[in-house]
Design a protein that fits this description.
The chain is of the alpha+beta class. It starts with 22 loop residues before the first helix and ends with a helix. The protein is 41% helix and 20% strand. It has two domains: 15-101, GTP cyclohydrolase I, N-terminal domain (GTP Cyclohydrolase I, Chain A, domain 1), CATH 1.10.286.10; 109-246, 2-Layer Sandwich (GTP Cyclohydrolase I, domain 2). The longest helix is centred in the first third of the chain and has 19 residues, at 52-70. The strands form two sheets. Strands 5-2-3-6-7 form a five-stranded mixed beta sheet. Strands 1-4 form a two-stranded antiparallel ribbon.
């Protein structure tokens, strides 16, 4: 492996002028040189330099335009799709996958001065993501249960962090782990539980086309893992919250 430029899948990119690198190649090289993972659900904001996100948006728009041409859509004459490439590029980089390209929202933590150690839950928090396999939406709800440690964060901050984590291509099982890691990093709770219940459009819109199916998964850490009664209390609180909402 002596190549300095990462291989481009299937050679689909048009040739660049001699010596020039596209912005995605530059960013990718930076990541590979430093042995940094850049899987679909990784955040790479620290490796994108000032101004490069705008460049990336142009590059992605160019590639989406080629995708539309390959789908034999007459983007030169179809007023509906004439600017679709630009819209899709902006949507991926600035909205639905912003959790890959943008830094984590600022979240201040505070000392737990009253030494609160009762558990509380936050939810439902709406989560919006896309499956890594087909890039179609995953939409659902998330509940977070906390037994505080020495630091606490504001309730609204859980929503912001969840939105940032979920705004990447994901599989649900990994999304819940990544969110748990981030919350532990922010406030190191004594106990943490997360439940995600989501609808997967790759099962509703395509594939088996089963509109009612949803996927529920959870993670429990710390005291929630070691103490079955705490875990039970968390699940019960979530059940009550859900029941309250459905009445
Ligand atoms: Zn899928």
């Amino acid at each position: 492996m002596t190549s300095t430029i990462p291989a481009i899948s299937n050679g689909t990119l048009p040739p660049l002028s001699a010596g020039a690198q596209s912005v995605s190649q530059r960013i990718r090289k930076r990541l590979i040189d430093q042995d940094i993972s850049f899987l679909a659900n990784d955040n790479i904001a620290a490796f994108i330099q000032s101004g490069e996100l705008d460049e990336l948006e142009h590059e992605v728009a160019d590639r989406v335009r080629e995708l539309l041409r390959s789908l034999v859509i007459d983007i030169d004459n179809d007023h509906n799709t004439a600017e679709t490439a630009e819209r899709v590029a902006r949507m991926y980089l600035r909205e639905v996958f912003k959790g890959r390209y943008h830094h984590q929202p600022k979240v201040a933590s505070f000392p737990n001065v009253k030494q609160l150690d009762e558990i509380y839950t936050v939810g439902p928090i709406t989560v919006r993501s896309a499956c890594s396999h087909h890039l179609v939406p995953i939409m659902g709800n998330c509940w977070i249960g906390i037994k505080p440690g020495d630091r606490v964060i504001g309730l609204s901050k859980f929503t912001r962090v969840a939105d940032w984590v979920f705004s990447r291509p994901h599989i649900q099982e990994e999304a819940v782990m990544i969110l748990a890691d981030e919350i532990e990093r922010l406030c190191a709770p004594q106990g943490l539980g997360i439940i995600i219940k989501a609808q997967h459009y790759c099962m509703k819109w395509r594939g088996v086309r089963e509109p009612q199916t949803s996927m529920v998964n959870s993670v429990v850490r710390g005291d929630f893992r070691h103490d079955p009664s705490l875990k039970q209390e968390f699940f019960e609180l979530v059940r009550q919250q859900e029941a309250m909402l459905s009445t």
